[in-house]
Structure formats: structure tokens, C-alpha cells
Amino acid sequence: MELAKEYGDDLQVILVECQNTGDLETERFTWDKGWMGGPAMWSSERPMNAGMDGIPHYVLLGNDGTVLSKGYSVADKSKVEDLIAEQVKARGDAPDDAPKSLKKAYAEFAKGKYQKAIEVAEKAIEKGDDVDAARQLIDSLTLKMERRLQLIERQLGAGEAVLAKANFEAFVDAARGVDAVADQIATLTETFDSEETKREIEADETLQRTLKKAFDDGIDSKTAKKLEKLAEDYAGTKCAERAKHLATLVVE
After folding, report:
1. Among 220-224, 232-236, 241-245, whose mean pLDDT is lowest?
2. Per its UniProt entry, which superkingdom is the organism in (predicted)?
3. Does 21 fall in a domain?
4. What values do phi and psi take at 61, rounded to 5?
5. How far apart are alpha carbons 121 and 137 in whole angstroms?
6. 22 SS3 class
């Protein structure tokens, strides 16, 4: 959890409950520990079999999806931290087999300069340099942008309006001038400008303040009452549904 908070979007942590505890009991446990609401994801389905029976164990994937390491989390703590730091540092590096004319495109995209990355690839095509590779790269970068927009839409649908707004604003800055996603940006801009979404954002801001205080001061019956009140005040919002559900997780 500490690494998930430290690296944010640079690291995706998936935590798996593998002792058949049950979704509700697991959720209550993580809620009581203050582990919910962060960037890590929780699941009861194993993405892969690590081949180990003891817990806690891990599988670490690199930027290209290959397995870098697996083992027991406590024993390999320093090793995992070093590997993650290396991968984060190298996340903007082009693949070893990438043409020299396109290496800068990978670097620009990693820095959040999406339009610049596309321009580098288009320039290679104009020059007749590595045309097929350049076109494939443009398609790949466009797909990544479309998936990020889809993630923002899912966050909105899940009642995480504050996070969705922050991610969208960052995306717009990075993708300004990219024709391939201009229509999707325009549509989402209208969504964020709507009164409905503004109310979702207000509700989520209130929820975040409530959760922060709960995690700082301790989760108790007062937390449940505040969440229930929030759900009443913002009835009809996705965030109200989240607050109502979280209230049911409070166990004295």
C-alpha cells in the first residue's frame, strides 16, 4: 500500500484475497485498516498463479508485461522496491528493437506530450523512414489514449468524480491538438460541464473529506452516520451510492 501511494499512476498494485474470506468480510477488513480509497485495486480472483502457497506472496510485472520477479513479499521487500524504481525510471524508454527515428516519440509520450509524440512518428512517415513501424506506433499510441479516456468514463460511472476530473484535465493538457481523440475530448468536456457532473464532483469532494477524517481519527459509528447523511444530501448521485455502501462496512 505504501508503494502504491508513493508511485501513484506509475505503479498499479492489485491485492488479492485468496483465503475464501468472502467479499463483504474482506471489504470490511480493508475498510477498517484504512486501505480503501487509494490507488491499489482489490480482487478475489487471482490474475495468475504464482506457484506458491504461503502468504503474502507477489508477482511483479515489468513495463512490457513480462514477469520480473516473484516470491514472498516480506523476504523480497528491498529487491521489489529496487526493481520498481528501475521500471519507473525506464518507463519512457523505447523498446530495444524500436527504429532510431521513433525513439523520441516514445520518450515524448511518456512525458505526457502526446501530440509531440504523434508528430515525431508522422515526420518519420513523411521522410519515408520506417513507415510501417511509424504507422503502427501511431495506432498504438492512439489506442492508449482512447483507453485512458475509457478509464475516465468508468471512474465517473463509479462515482469517483474528483479522480476522473483530475485525470481528464491532465489528459486534455497532454492530448491538446491530437485529432484522433478530439471528438471524445469534446464529449467528455460537455459531460464535466454539466450540472449533473458538477453535483457528482461536489458530492465526491465531501466524501473525500469525510474519509480522510475517518482514516485519521478512526472509523466508528460517527463515520457511518456522516456517510449516511452524505448519501441523503446527495441522493441520486453515484457518489451517494458509494457513501451508503461504505456506511454498511463500519463495524464497531
Report:
1. 220-224
2. Bacteria
3. yes
4. -100, 145
5. 7
6. coil
Whole-number Cα distances in Å, 125 to 17, 134, 247: 48, 6, 56
Q: Given the C-alpha cell 472509523, which residue does it identify?
A: 219
> How far, in Å, are 62, 82, 180 from residue 110 at the CA level?
15, 21, 18
Domain range for 17 is 2-89
What is residue 191's predicted lDDT score, i.e. its pLDDT?
Answer: 97
Same domain, 82 and 107: no
Burial category of 123 from C-beta neighbours within 10 Å (exposed 0-12, middle 13-18, buried 19 and up)? middle
* pLDDT single digits (tens) 13-60: 887 877 777 777 777 777 666 666 566 677 777 777 778 778 888 888
Residue 102 is classified by DSSP as: G
Q: How many domains does the chain have?
A: 3
Shared domain check, 167 and 152:
yes
Query: Which are the contacts of 33, defined by CB distance < 8 A and separation ≥ 6?
Result: none
Measured between alpha carbons, how far is residue 50 from residues 11, 57, 84 in Å?
19, 8, 18
Report the alpha-carbon distance of residue 241 to residue 246 in Å, rounded: 9
Q: Give domain status of residue 58, yes or no.
A: yes
- Residue 94: inside a domain: no
Q: Where do runs of H (alpha helix) occur along 158-194?
A: 161-175, 182-193
